[in-house]
Amino acid sequence: NYDEAHIILEECDNIMKRTEALWAKVPDDVKASFYQLVYYPAMAVPNVLKIQIYAALNNKYAKLGLTVANKYAKLCQEVIDLDNELFDGYNEKMPGVVESGKKWSGMISCGQNHHIGLQAWDRDSGKLPDLITVNPESSSEMQILVEDITDSFKNVITEGETKLPTFNSVSDETFKIQLFFMVIQLKVSI
Predict the structure, then answer these.
(1) Taking a C-beta distance cutoff of 8 angstroms, is the pair 62, 134 a contact?
(2) Interhelix angle for 4-25 vs 40-63, to 10°?
(3) What are the sequence ranges of the domains in the chain?
(4) What superkingdom heads the lineage (predicted)?
């Protein structure tokens, strides 16, 4: 609703960029503390949120048969890779000079990707989201998604007419129309 997913993604990017900028300014003698208390949480939390949002957008568009799903699968894989880097950094490369950066080795000991999508309290219940790849070879049908029309983001409009919601002259409103090509075949990649 109201482009909330993309707004949250922008907020996550903003937090992560500001964190990187702060990291560059931190003096070496306090880098270990800053990393543990600020850098890692401020990078890892929004990154996991990005994994969840990109996976949800991938699944949403793939179920509609839209090739834009592939873009979100790629973005999701990129942030999963960053999550793995952050995880390794915390366990193996954290600043602090103790045993060549292994100051907190094993502190996040559940294993990579087991901290995402937990199904229960045990450490092995985590699961990365399933990503769907849409095969663009059989693309033939144009589809339209119109913001704020009932179910338009659940069902695409492939024929007939549709209208945008009424614009209000008092407020500064924008509405989104998305045009896509539909794909008939889906290939699921897990």
Answers:
(1) yes
(2) 150
(3) 4-128, 136-189
(4) Eukaryota
Half-sphere exposure of 188 (CA within 13 A, CB side): 5
Cα–Cα distance measured from residue 158 to residue 143, given in angstroms and rounded to the nearest whole number: 5
Residue 131 carries which DSSP code? E
Phi, psi of 3 (to 5 degrees): 60, 30
d(CA 113, CA 126): 7
Residue 145, number of CB atoms within 10 A of its CB: 20
pTM: 0.78
**Beta-bridge partners for 145:** 178
pLDDT at 6 over 50: yes
Q: Across residues 125-151, what is the average pLDDT? A: 70
Burial category of 90 from C-beta neighbours within 10 Å (exposed 0-12, middle 13-18, buried 19 and up):
buried
Tokens of 15: 């937090």
- Could you tell me which CATH number the domain at 4-128 has? 1.20.58.2150
